Structure formats: C-alpha cells, structure tokens
Amino acid sequence: MRMLPILVIDDSASVIRLFSHLLQLTTHSARGVVHASSLEEALDHLPRGKFHLVFLDNRLPPHSTYHEPLRQVAELTDAPIILFTGSELDEICDGELPEAFAGYFPKHKLTKEFLEDFLAGYEDRS
User: Fold this and answer.
1) Maximum CA pair distance of the chain?
2) Which parts of 29-125 fold into alpha helices (H)?
3) What are phi and psi of 21, to 5 degrees?
4) Integer CA distances (angstroms), 20 to 31, 55, 98, in order
5) Domain 21-59+76-125 adopts which CATH fold?
6) Which of 21, 30, 53, 60 is 20 to 30 A (C-alpha) from 117?
7) pLDDT cut 90: percent of the chain above it
8) pLDDT tens per residue across span 17-51
C-alpha cells in the first residue's frame, strides 16, 4: 500500500529542511515530504497528487494572513490542512476558522517527539 506524502508549504528553506530531517527520524519517514516555498508552487503540486496532510505557513508571502492561501489550498485537496505557525492559535485566529482548517502546529515545538505524536493522530487516514 502506497503511503501518501505530506505537503509542506513554507517560504523558509530552513523550516522545510528541519521538518524533512525530523520526519526521517520518525516512524512516518516512509511518507516522504513534498516541499513548496510559495503558494503558486503548492497549487502546482496539489492537482498532481494526493496528500496525507498539508502543512501551510500561516504567513506565506505576499499574503499577510492565512485566509486566502488556506482557501486556495482547500479548493484543491481533501487532506487536512494544518497551519504551521510561529504563534499560538489565539494570536492567529481572528474569527471563525474555515472548515478546511484541521489544526495548527507551532513551529517552536518542532521536535522529533512532537512531530511523531502529532502525526500519530492522523495515521488512520492512510
């Protein structure tokens, strides 16, 4: 059975490298990571493949909020979309969250153990 990859959309190459490295250390390493450093690049990947999860930077230039990128990504995937954020949820949430929003992942908690536990909650989607 083919394991669906994880799509990481973040304009920071160092965040993407760290995420990929930590994923390789977890039991989810067979999933693989597809990187996108811009919304446009992510939108190119989405029609071509299915993804297990999508991690979306909540401040993806040139957008100042997550609303438009989240809407556009949600139109092209049925995978849960996780906001990848440097802030706490109450700092980024300015009202009702869209249906596509499945959770948030604070960048400052990005460790192998946290990633392993976080992904375990989504494992039954394969």
Assistant:
1) 40
2) 39-45, 67-76, 89-92, 112-120
3) -60, -50
4) 11, 12, 27
5) Rossmann fold (3.40.50)
6) 60
7) 22
8) 888 888 888 877 778 889 999 999 999 999 877 89
User: pLDDT at residue 91 above 60?
Assistant: no
The pair of structure tokens assigned to 42 is 């992510």
Q: Which amino acid does the sequence have at 76?
A: L
| Burial (0-12, 13-18, 19+ Cβ within 10 Å), 27 | exposed
Tell me the sheet residues that pair with 81. Answer: 54, 101
The candidate with the shortest Cα–Cα distance to 23, out of 121, 110, 84, 106, is 110
Tell me how far apart the alpha carbons of residues 76 and 80 are, in angstroms, rounded to a whole number: 12
Q: Could you identify the residue written with the tokens 């991690």?
A: 55
Phi then psi for residue 108, to 5 deg, are -70, -10
CA angle at 58 for the pair 40 and 93, rounded to the nearest 5°: 135
